[in-house]
Amino acid sequence: MTWIEILTLSAAGCTAGAINAIAGGGTLLTFPVLLMCGTPPVLANATSTVGLVIGTAGSILGFRGR
Predict the structure, then answer these.
(1) Quick one: how far is CA 22 from the chain centroid?
(2) N or C, fewer C-beta in 10 Å, the chain?
(3) Do 20 and 56 form a contact (C-beta atoms < 8 A)?
(4) Which percentage of the chain shows pLDDT scores above 90?
(5) Residue 51 pLDDT > 90
């Protein structure tokens, strides 16, 4: 994995997490980026789902007191 792929995936993950915290739909960003970096489709789907579920749990805890 190259540094560009690492930076691209990190940026997509952070942006998708922010999108999911506000409105949902972060998978629309992470899945294509994973495919673009050469991840097989089934693995990209699973990776995107697991990553965003963890971020959703953080959002739930963050907004719980409001």
Answers:
(1) 14
(2) C
(3) yes
(4) 48
(5) no
The 3-class SS string of the chain reads CCHHHHHHHHHHHHHHHHHHHHCCCCHHHHHHHHHHCCCCHHHHHHHHHHHHHHHHHHHHHHHCCC
**For 56, phi and psi rounded to 5 degrees?**
-65, -40
Rounded (5°) CA angle 11-36-41: 110
DSSP 8-state assignment for residue 39: -
Closest CA to 47 of 11, 18, 9, 19: 9
Q: How many CB atoms lie within 10 A of CB 58?
A: 12
Q: Which residue has the tokens 């970096």?
A: 37
